[in-house]
Amino acid sequence: MAPNNDSPSLEQQVEILKQRLAQAQNLTALGELVSTTTHEFNNVLMTIINYAKYGLRHQDRASREKAFEKILAAGNRAAKITNCVLGVARNRSCGQDAVDLAQVVEDTLMLLEREMNKYRIKVEKQYAQVPQVYANGNQIQQILLNLMINARQAMPGGGRLLIKLAHDAENDLVDLVVRDFGCGIPADKLPHIFDPFYSTKNGPDASGKGGSGLGLSMCRDIIEADHGRIRVDSSPGVGTAITLKIPSVTRAAKNRPAPRAPIGPMTLPINTVSAPVS
Questions:
Q1: DSSP letters of 6-36?
Q2: Is the dihedral of CA 90, 102, 135, 249 positive or negative?
Q3: Residue 184, by phi and psi: left (phi above 0), alpha (psi -120 to 50) or beta?
Q4: Contact 249, 209 (CB under 8 A)
Q5: Per-residue pLDDT tens for 150-183?
Q6: Is the separation of the CB atoms in 29 and 210 below 8 Å?
Q7: Which residues contact 17 (CB under 8 A, 6 or more apart)?
Q8: pLDDT (tens digit, 9 = 90+) per residue, 173-230?
Q9: Which of 33-42, 97-106, 137-146, 190-199 shows the highest mean pLDDT?
């Protein structure tokens, strides 16, 4: 019997399975996001209902104006939450574009606001003036969701979460840092944290999130596709800082291959570094 030349090679089959795994993981992340934002959306609806009742009970102009203002603010918040979720659900493009990282961070924090409050996580933000980056904004948001949930899980008793934006002008990279002050990662486990299916957790927590070992592997793949680098600094009992170094729009334009050029796009290596966190 003649061999079937149309059958995919072993390498092609592995690539197909990787793509299917990534799709399944995206759906899982979307399900977790919808679960989180459903509670937040319910809170917004309760605000609208309560202030509508308030406006009906009070006939004076001042009370009614207050009720309308609160209802309008809650409605705008509901619209923003819905748009963020729809953006995650609809944007399946693998292409890169100019991205405002500060806006992506703010949208992600809004989606996780209820969860952070529930687990007594205080979010601190340090934003320097940074240029736009050349990346897939939807995928960067997926990374942030993963890293922020990991940071929250590293502080089960509550704590501080630091989000920092800075410009590495020398290399024309934008540094996005997600820093927790939790349990940290043991030195013997740190080299394996980006391995598929490897996890430092015993399984999902009470919220049903985490423990699959897929999240950080996905983060690495996304940053690699955006020609960036990722750095991890962690010390047990001190905390973990994960730095995403993403090319600015101008750097990406310089390194982008010309049309029909034989040389492919530049790929920067992924660096995993173990060092004490100050």
A1: TSPPHHHHHHHHHHHHHHHHHHHHHHHHHHH
A2: positive
A3: left
A4: no
A5: 899 999 999 999 999 999 999 999 999 999 999 9
A6: no
A7: none
A8: 999 999 999 999 888 888 888 777 666 665 555 555 554 445 677 788 888 888 889 9
A9: 97-106
- Determine how many CB atoms are found less than 10 A away from the CB of residue 264: 7
Residues in the chain: 278
Residue type, 2: A
Within 13 A of 56's CA, how many CA atoms are on the CB side? 6
Mean pLDDT estimate for the chain: 80
Answer yes or no: are the C-beta atoms of 48 and 21 closer than 8 Å.
no
The band of 2, judged by pLDDT with boundaries at 50, 70 and 90, is: low
Least reliable range by pLDDT among 10-14, 141-145, 230-234:
10-14
Q: Is 47 exposed, middle or buried (0-12, 13-18, 19+ CB in 10 A)?
A: middle
How far does CA 211 lie from the centroid of its chain?
A: 17
* Pairing relationship of beta strands 121-127 and 159-168 according to DSSP bridges: parallel
pTM equals 0.68
Please, are residues 226 and 135 in contact by the beta-carbon 8 Å criterion?
Answer: yes
Collapsing DSSP to helix, strand or coil, 77 comes out as helix
Question: Is 133 in contact with 101 (CB distance < 8 Å)?
Answer: yes
Rounded to whole angstroms, the Cα distance separating 152 from 159 reads 8
* Per-residue DSSP letter, 50: H
Rounded to an integer, what distance in angstroms lies between the CA atom of residue 67 and that of residue 214? 46
